[in-house]
Amino acid sequence: MSDYQTTHDASIDRRQETVVTQQPGYVASEQVTYDVASERRQGVLLFNQILWTLLGGLEVLLVLRLMLKLFAANPNSGFAVFIYGITGAFTAPFSGLFAIPAAGGSVFETTTIVAMLVYALIFWGIMRIIPIFTNRPSARTFTRTSREQTPGGQGNERSTSTITKD
After folding, report:
1. The pTM is what?
2. Which domain holds residue 56?
3. Do 53 and 125 reside in the same domain of the chain?
């Protein structure tokens, strides 16, 4: 038979739960303290990983655009139309910022390089700001206590305790 005792909130960032199991001649209790802030940081870490992946994808697309323009790729081919269509929205805020040097059919789009740098700086700034608002100290403790009583009375008890900290 297990009895779940109520959860105790030690603070906003910690949650404590105790589970007691009782059987004839055997009593075991487990106490787990959860660090809610650490769980929140795991979510922030996942969010940061998603943002870095999005930035990496955007940077790859912008490099492809830069290479297609530099090597004078046919602008009517399906792949070039696809890349120019996707990246056009990201390079549009920077169009006309610099003169675009061209030699023959090759074009060196400095605006694409500026866009890559600006987006990298924006993402980097977001990554640096998010932990400032979400970072808090963490600790998780798990305590397990068992007490066995064999037939014969008070003197025949055995207790064990295990404490684990992360």
Report:
1. 0.62
2. 38-134
3. yes
